[in-house]
Amino acid sequence: MVLTAVLLVSCYETERNCAQFKTGTFRFEAVIGTQIETTTFVRNDSMEIDYFRGNADTSSIRWINDCEYIVQKINPKNRAEKKAVHMKILSTQGNEYTFEYNIVGAQQKQRGTATKVQ
Fold first, then answer.
1. Is the pLDDT of residue 7 over 50?
2. pTM of the model
């Protein structure tokens, strides 16, 4: 009986192989207004370059652990862009990961899924 319970619980464990997503080229799609917009970003261990609507932005990255990091724009254009963002990888599957993010200190969190393309 106990063995059956352990087996059932282990079948539903969330995969979190975060280390494979620390570096690479990724794609993230989000609905903005009524359109699906795509952001591509290239990340190494300490820096991320985002490409969105023909513009590139560079951010620094500080890893908290294999699954969490803080992103901060290097050249913010306004007060909102000065705020750091906390990113947390919740689950991984194949070449995708589901993440949760929020402005550091804010309670409201949002979720998304990124795909590793390289």
1. no
2. 0.82
